[in-house]
Amino acid sequence: METRKLLDLVSVGKATYEDFVMLNIHTVEDLVGCDANQLFEELKEIRGLEHLDRCCEDVFTCAIKQAENPNLPEEQKQWHYWSKVRKGIIFPE
User: Fold this and answer.
1) Which end of the chain has the least Cβ crowding within 10 Å, N or C?
2) pTM (predicted TM-score)
3) Distances (CA, A) of 41 to 3, 44, 47, 72
4) pLDDT, tens digit (0-9, with 9 covering 90-100), for 46-59
5) CA 27 to CA 73: how far, in whole Å?
């Protein structure tokens, strides 16, 4: 059974937590199998925004990866790692 809370995940702060609540994500287990881009698009729709910083999607990716792998390397627990992946600067192993 998962004992971590959303705010225990590296790179998840109060604002991201509040985004998750708006997206009906309340536990780390709720993140398993989620698609970060889909969550990003849903959040834009919920907020009524045409533009939202893509870094938000990177934070979602980071949280999802940690939910799916509690032993994720420390570097990959940082949202900016996933920004580099999204931009094609680095490729995850």
Assistant:
1) N
2) 0.94
3) 28, 5, 10, 25
4) 999 999 999 999 99
5) 21
